[in-house]
Amino acid sequence: MPFISKKTLASLLGIVFFAMAAVVATAPQVQEKQLSVYAPVATYTLPVLDRSGHEYVGLLELLEPLGRVSSQAAGGRWGIRYNSVDGNFAAGKSRGRIRGRDFDLGAPFLIENARGFVPLASLGNLLPKFLGTAVDFHQSGRRLFVGQVGIEPSFHLESGAQPRLVLNFNGPVNPTISTEPGRVRMLFKRDPVLSPGSQSISFADKIITQATYSENNGAAEIDVTANSPLLATYSNGGKTITLAAAPTEAKSGQGAPANPLANAPSQPKATPPPGTAPPAVRRPVIFVDAAHGGDERGAALTDRLAEKDVTLGFARLLRHELELRGFAVQMSREGDTAVPLDQRAGSANAGQAVAFIALHATSQGSGARVYTALLPREGESKGVFRAWNGAQEQALAVSSMVATAIVNELQVRKMTGRASAASLRPLNNVLMPAVAVELAPGPNGAADLGSATYQQQVAAAIADGVVSVRDRLGVQR
Amino acid sequence: MIPRHLVISVAVMLVLVVTMGIYARRMRRQARELESPATNTLPVAPPASGRTEAVTLYVADDSPGILRQEAAQIPLPGGRQQRAEELLRALLRVYQQPGAAHPLSAASDIRSIYLVEPGMAVIDLNAAFADEHRSGILIEQLTVNSLVETLAANVQGIQRVRILVEGRARETLAGHADLSDVFDVQKMMQ
After folding, report:
1. Does domain A285-375+386-472 sit in CATH 3.40.630.40?
2. Chain B contacts to A (CB-CB under 8 A)
3. ipTM > 0.85?
4. Where are the domains of chain A?
5. Which of A269, A291, A417, B133 lies 20 to 30 Å from A449, alpha-carbon distance?
6. CATH, domain range A153-252
7. Tens digit of each residue's pLDDT (9 = 90 or more) over B29-39
């Protein structure tokens, strides 16, 4: 029987190990397919499934952020109610019924784990039936625009020895910017950026030669080709990105600092907005707490409207308004789930948010009321550890400024607003400036509480109020 | 032949039996009527003949969302604890009147008030007070402020107030106002 020495065996094992490692390292990364949805109330992405040669997306998951949705599955049938619109589908059947009328999906309906999936190709015709509004579906790029949410770019080249390409957008954007030899890539994952009209624009310049627009897997990308390293800067509240030829090493000692990314060889890195260091782009985080949820319904605002549903929709609108103003938003809940008060406060504290905004609703009064914490008799603090019920104390002065700023913005919009203090958890338990906003009926009474238009007005006032005191939140402009 | 005196005695006894039966029936009906008010949780009326004192009630008004100071003359007993209970019951009666600006359920009541240590008062509400209270930050906070500020303004030395429901700690009054902590009177009245 042949005998293999220990040395030979070890060598063989080593070779096998390195071969496997090389295979794993060089294997192409499988990118999960996804659909991006841009709507006035929310921007979100959903996974896309491949089944029998068709792409599918969950219908409940697609509609859930846009309104009140419920679904039920029985046998091979699946029903969904979006606000007051009913849809019924059967597994394996390409025809369903929406608003009592037949609708052709173009491919069989899919039910998996009691979840209903519709073909991606059907969304352009299917969604208007539920939403009652037009949608713009870019199927090849898997990007869906609900309503007039698109952000259009325009290009302006300033030629010269140090040419500058100015990209103006009609809304704030926050792309991931990376540099590669000969080009700058701007990837817009959460921004509803649209095509500038042409897929490719050529410039009569020796350094900045071309810009191209493309859409792929739920994101838009603008690539700028240049013969020299480029420096990217943000201005105009995130609505303008300027690409300029980076100063050379010799010049950098005399004037503007060189962008570390401009000389980066091939590893993509984020480009910082001006005035921030270190280089990573990080938007200040606002924690938005949609009060109540799950079994905890909150107040019954009308016979059909529960406070927990209003706060969730209101929170989504506020998230959108804050994102438009350059903030990142962390939500306490994304759906109808019960989240304990301590967990809400803990998440905000751990996430290092710069402000905490809890949202409530009431059928009493009008406009909105803004509350700061009415601190209780504080528990015992030990050293650096703050008493849980008095964690808010040090931020209370700034919280009052935030509340006053929001009330001012409400009054600018001719809405009733008033600030006061309330013993309301978890305001006591958060370390950052914290307010609670209680949405009250508008000019049309309690019916306004469920109105996205009315909620959007109040959400815009809140967001503007936060922006007006952003310096006090430790956020640089 | 039955003797005449025996007939008369039997007749008198029969009349007595019938009379007592009617009387017993009336007594039972009265007893039943007395039993039913025992289940009524409405606040007990104050002693009509007691000496009245001038007090200040902090009365909530939902419409502007504020507390109004209202002067009142109410009969108050001598003991500090009993005075506190009668004071808040008088406040409660304002909220239970038809057309009140901050209506509370007719079944709401103050079970007891304990002055457990210098400066600390514990208000024990009945279950109906919390269970039937309307839900909302403003509405609940007005109730809490009204109770605490009325108590602190009229009973000397109260600096902290705890609110219990049926003798137990409760997280919120009706989903919003936090009852899990001790209220600091000074902070609340600022």
Report:
1. yes
2. 62-63, 65, 134-139, 141, 144, 160, 172, 175-178, 180-184, 187-188
3. no
4. 34-146, 153-252, 285-375+386-472
5. B133
6. 2.60.40.3470
7. 888 776 554 44
